[in-house]
Amino acid sequence: MTFEEMLLKRESCRAYDPTRPVTREDLTKICEAGRLTPSGCNSQPWRFLAVDEAEARKKLCDALVLESGRTGAPWREDCNAFIVLIEDEAKLMPGVAEYYGTTQRFAQGDIGMACLNMCYRAMELGLSTCIIGMADQKKLREAFAIPEKHEIRMVLAVGYPKEDKPARPKARKPFESVVSFNEWK
Ligand SMILES: Cc1cc2nc3c(=O)[nH]c(=O)nc-3n(C[C@H](O)[C@H](O)[C@H](O)COP(=O)(O)O)c2cc1C
Q1: pLDDT tens, 27-40?
Q2: pTM for the complete prediction?
């Protein structure tokens, strides 16, 4: 598959096949894609917490529902694996943090890149993914004993899709409205 084909094929999957578990081997490969991602000053400000056992999955699924009852993943129970992406303290090169006033300036972008690398690696393995931005931080922290100082940035759902369907057309802003050459437009 060419990279262009991958760009058009990757999409958020919101219907998983609950009968097909994700192997530990594949989850490991996906986490490895995260680990190999570039980051500001090579600071690697991330931790990846893979969840594939029934009890842990139940705790994770509970945390995907906010106190208000809202959830970004109503389909969560059908998904057999998740990876929680957690921000870690970034150690930047001398002068960089001083300039920006924070060591975490690049961390969210770095974690976003890691997440997308993981999505593409999963896709290569025949798996589908959905990035979940909404999760109850307190419940997640308690469920997995994640220390207070670590911000939980996103949860990546990983599983086999319920159906093999052709990719949806991409709903994106027009090219001209987001790209300009040599001047701000
Ligand atoms: C930071 C972030 C948070 C997201 N949170 C959710 C979510 O909670 N639930 C969901 O179904 N999709 C979520 N998505 C998926 C986006 O809705 C999706 O990527 C976007 O609509 C583009 O569609 P595509 O991924 O199918 O190309 C999230 C994506 C990102 C990058």
Answers
A1: 999 999 999 999 99
A2: 0.98
Q: What is the pLDDT of residues 102-141, one digit of tens each?
A: 999 999 999 999 999 999 999 999 999 999 999 999 999 9
All residues at 6 or more sequence positions from 3 whose CB lies less than 8 Å from its CB, including other chains: none
Q: How far apart are CA 11 and CA 3, in angstroms?
A: 14
Report pLDDT for 52.
Answer: 98
Nearest CA to ligand 1 atom 2: 133
Ligand 1 centre distance from Cα of residue 30 (Å): 18
For ligand 1, whether the C-beta of 107 sits within 6 Å is no
Does the CB atom of residue 134 touch ligand 1 within 6 A?
yes
What does DSSP assign to residue 149? T
Q: Which CATH superfamily is domain 3-178 in?
A: NADH Oxidase (3.40.109.10)
User: DSSP letter at 161?
Assistant: B
